[in-house]
Amino acid sequence: MPSHDVMPDMELYQPVQVEDALALAARLGERGWLLGGGQDTYGWLKDRAKRAEALIDLNGIAALRGISETADGIEIGALTSLTEIATSPLINQRYGVLAAAAGRVASPQIRNAGTLGGNVSQDVRCWYYRRGLDCYRAGGNLCYADTPEGMNREHAIFGQSRCVAASPSDTAPALVALDASMVIRSENGERVMPAADYFVGPAIDIRNTTALRTGEILTAVRIPSTWANASFYFEKVADRNVWDFALVSIAVAMKLNGDTISDSRFVAGAVECKPRRLLDVEAAVRGKPRDAATAQSLGDLASRGARTLAHNQYKVPLLNNLVRRALHIA
Amino acid sequence: MTFMHIGKDFTPPDVEGKVTGDAKYAEDFRREGMVFARLLTSPMPSGRIVSIDASAALRMDGVLGIITADDLPPSAPPANPMLASEYVTYIGQPILAVAAISEHVAENALEQIKVQFERRDFVVDPLDSLIEGGPDAYPEGNAMVLTAPEGDENTALVGRIQPVKWPAAEVEKLRMGKEPNGKFTAGWEYGDLDAQFAQCDVIVEESFVTAGYPHQCMEPRTSMVYWENGKCYFHASTQSQSSVNNGLAAMLGIGPENLCLINENTGGGFGSKGTSYPSMGIAGNLSRLLNRPVQLRITREEEFYIGVGRPGMQGWIKIGVKDGGKVAAVDLVIVSDGGPTGQNSASSSAGHISVLYQPDAMRLRNIPIFTNTAPRGAQRGPGQNEMAAALAPIMDKVAKQVGIDRVAFRKMNAANSDSGIYEDQSPVTSAFMAEAIEKGAQMFDWQAKISQPRRRGNKVIGIGVGQGYHGAGGYGYDGLVRIAPSGRVYIHSGVGNLGTYSFAATSRAVAEVLQCSWDNCEIVRARTDRHLPHSSTQGGSNTIFTHSRTNYVAAMDVVTKLKEIAAAEFGGAVDDYSIGEERVFLTSDPAKGMSYGAAAQKAIELGGRYSGGEYPDDIDPITQRAVAGLAGTGLIGVAKDNLPRKGTPPGEIVGFVEIEIDLDTGKIAVLDYVAVADCGTVMHPKGFSQQMNGGGVWGIGMAAYERHVYDPQNGLPANVGLYQSKLPTMLDVPATMANAAADIPDPFNPMGGRGIGEPSQGCAVAAMTSAIADALEGHLFNRVPVTADMILNHVAQNDFGPRPLKLNTF
Fold it and tell me: What is the dotted CATH code of the domain comprising B381-473+647-795?
């Protein structure tokens, strides 16, 4: 087991038009690998834990960058950097939960390089899987984390299905909370799907964390005006305050009628293989004031149904606490 | 004492290069014809190598050759071999190196090499090996039995492997935090333990676990080597250009006179580069085999594997206190996780207690167990700092039961200049810890802090105090100074340059003695062919004490020779002469004198001892060669440090911290940090502050962040990189950290100084664990680090029953 850290031999394509990239993605199929900011890619490739024959470097495609207003909200190019999103006046003004989430990704350096498309499409961070072990997700027939002795402190407490890896993305819960749509293109055309459907758990597809298929490219994310200027809350708890993945995160959007919550989205990160919408919580707070009493009334509603592993029981109180804090910080 | 240079800030000569990026490290050097080597390492924690087939790799274009254990002298376990021969004992253990015209080709070649293994049982937790029927890390057994006395922390333990097993019931006792009755292979005792415990009013028993911690030096240990005319030129990453030499020369099978070690800058060592290490031998021997310059770049992941780490501890302690707070007796059991090297710091851990709490009687029972985890070695405050982490909240519990303030308790038991320490109750040069504690408590405003309300909404305040200790100095090394005919003063130093600047701070002792301008001084270092003296490693907190002494004696030799030369020139007795303004002159008639440069010219003319033609008999062979190389080039001052000695120069620091724990998230915020050192005279204020703060940051990381996780199912380490290891970041530590010194000179150092590099971490980690327990109303986790998940589980009263002592399960 050499400790590789040099890029393996592979072809490099650097298209400047989306159409050329789509043609390459179609032609190369499974042999190709889409490259955005590289923050997920280079680890896999340099470790040689995943192999690809050709890199399709999307960074030269100007059309994939930028934040623009649309008739019903905004559209963000998939290659837009996380720093741009975190600092965008438009996003900060209307969709602060996304700016906050983007601003808590990893470190300033990684946010400069990392893209929105990459952040939402990145692979799970289960350390067994990343080591290249032949687990279910890697095509094998066992899970190393979901055992009595597995080191599974960071793993999921919901939605396990052979694989117990957790969603690592900070922006994904925010996008689900904002009812965002994902714009996916291929040579065959364009499809647009809700963010909530873009992210998939192992019961649906154990090899992929998104609905993106070979030959497809996530080109943009659209955020409707539905939740613009709503009352937002985002909190990410990680071991470190910089350069870390969430132990649990929460993205919340609330529409308030006076002090009363008329509608809301509560979405948790890092508790399931995809962002977890807390529908019970949303139902429970509807028509209630945003205050301490409502927060306390939830009890353990957010974590109900959780199945903990040997080392991740702490995620249960953490999730409950973050939901409560979204409603009322003591 | 008023100094001209000591105690004043200055710009060390290597600073500019580090600011501009011009500073070169081993990996930055190239040589014509240089080839690149990469390591093939073990994929399994324990196994036997059945066969190696490198034929396909060797047929590849650009591949120049490989080196295996068959090309090297045999090595017997538990010595850490350059390359594994029959058995592999940890994941990441180097098995062979392949050299090619580029790293790219070398990495591709690695994938073409086929190694067949037989798997063996492995173990990652010492108690799993110690129990009857448990697996052994080596075919020969699981325990280290020393066959030679334990040296300092930079000396590998010498011993043999033998099987030692405990009945399951005894292992279970330790796992559940009770005193075990098993076989130990090391330990010591002083005083009448039973009699002292019998006098105690309060007795506390607790268990503790401290994780291992890998080294995280910014610069991985890359080597670049070439041979010319039978001489080896070796660019390395080390903590010394002197103490590494003999070991490296032995690995290469050459005399140290045929080794030129080159090490301009080192990006951190922290004990892991204090002596020669195995990957140096791989690079050097491969270069000779190929007759080509070879660079063996070590990756971040490989650095985790081969960079050695701090041993973990599982233990039990019983502390007895009498007379309203005097620590009377300490009984200590430590099972050490020594990895495959069996490194064991238990004696240092016990020594930490003997210094800082001065028990009247004490016993250590210890057994180092081999595990199939990464090799272990010295790491900043080895033994002492992990004990500091475990001990602080336990001692707080003791103080509470006695009914005494935690700071007062530590002050009451602090060592003074007449104290005895360690198992032999040997003396210290001086100690003023009570004064440091007093000063620190005032700076931190301890009384006000502990009196404040603790609960702030969902947050709770914790106030902690902790102490760090490390023996901070050595004796008997050599100093070497040359004055050239130009009058320039050259201070030769073999002390490494880790970025602590102590090589420069200690060189200022020469300018102090010679009463000369610092601008007229130049530190000669970095390459052994620049004629460097026998120096200590830059580690063990020792440089300040050790090398201000060596530079002092060498400078005093210069002064003597200056006066002798002047007396010979102008008449009168040597004692009639003085120095000043870079001249030596007749005290009664300053006009009769000469410049340092003129005296140096005279020394060359006189020859013999004045210009290095002769030298003292007691200097080390390394220094002898250095002097011989300089002979005839100026006035040579050279001497061994034979100044008066008195036991151990202690480096002690007390740390105070205020933290805020968010009970909803388990997160700890450090609000305030103050540390005060008992380190004698502060020789270089900026260097002092840098060490105090740097150690403080690491202590915070050790207490609440750094992770060292092994999977018990397959022996895989989970944290092989900087990200996974969770070193604290800028936003995890306070923006400002205050520090000061008791500032009472040590009488056994002519400049008054002692080192503080290591205890600066120990006091911080101890203050942190003390504060965490304080915030949680005295709750003891009995393990370090304390991470957010542990706090959340505690607050939520997630009760999983008594958690057995286990390493790496955080």
Answer: 3.30.365.10
On chain A, the residues whose CB falls within 8 A of the CB of B111 are 2, 48
Measured between alpha carbons, how far is residue B453 from residues B658, B672, B775 in Å?
A: 13, 16, 11
The reported pTM is 0.97
CATH class of B17-120+218-268+273-306: alpha beta
Asked if A314 reaches chain B (Cβ–Cβ under 8 Å), the answer is: yes
Domains of chain A: 67-121+166-327 (3.30.465.10)
**Per-residue model confidence as pLDDT tens digits over A78-105:** 999 999 999 999 999 999 999 999 999 9
pLDDT digits (tens, 9 = 90+) for B510-568: 999 999 999 999 999 999 999 999 999 888 889 999 999 999 999 999 999 999 999 99
Does the distance separating the beta carbons of A1 and B800 come in below 8 Å? no
Domain pair B17-120+218-268+273-306 / B476-640, same fold = no
**What's the CA gap between B275 and B706, in Å, rounded?**
25
| Cβ of residue A243 closer than 8 Å to a chain B Cβ | yes
The 10s digit of each residue's pLDDT in B642-663 is 999 999 999 999 999 999 999 9
CB B719 within 8 A of CB B709: yes
* Interface-testing mutation among A6, A7, A129, A324, with chain B (most B C-beta atoms within 10 A): A6
Residues in chain A with CB shorter than 8 Å from the CB of B40 are 2
Task: Give the tens place of pLDDT for each residue, B609-624.
Answer: 999 999 999 999 999 9
Instruction: Give B307-335 pLDDT, tens digit per residue.
Output: 999 999 999 999 999 999 999 999 999 99
Give the per-residue pLDDT at A1.
59
- The domain limits of chain B are 17-120+218-268+273-306, 381-473+647-795, 476-640
Rounded to a whole number of angstroms, the distance between the first and last alpha carbons of chain B is 50
CB contact A328 to B (< 8 Å): no
B730 → closest Cβ in A144, A149, A242 = A242
Distance CA A114, CA A120 (A): 11
* Min distance B164 CA to chain A CA atoms (Å): 25
- Find all residues with CB under 8 Å of B430, minimum gap 6, and list them: B417, B649, B680, B744, B746, B747, B748
Q: Do B705 and A317 touch (CB under 8 A)?
A: no
Residue B301 and residue A237: Cβ atoms within 8 Å?
no
Subunit contact B107:A8, Cβ cutoff 8 A: yes
Q: Give, in words, the CATH class of B476-640.
A: alpha beta
The overall longest dimension of chain A from CA atoms, in Å, is: 61
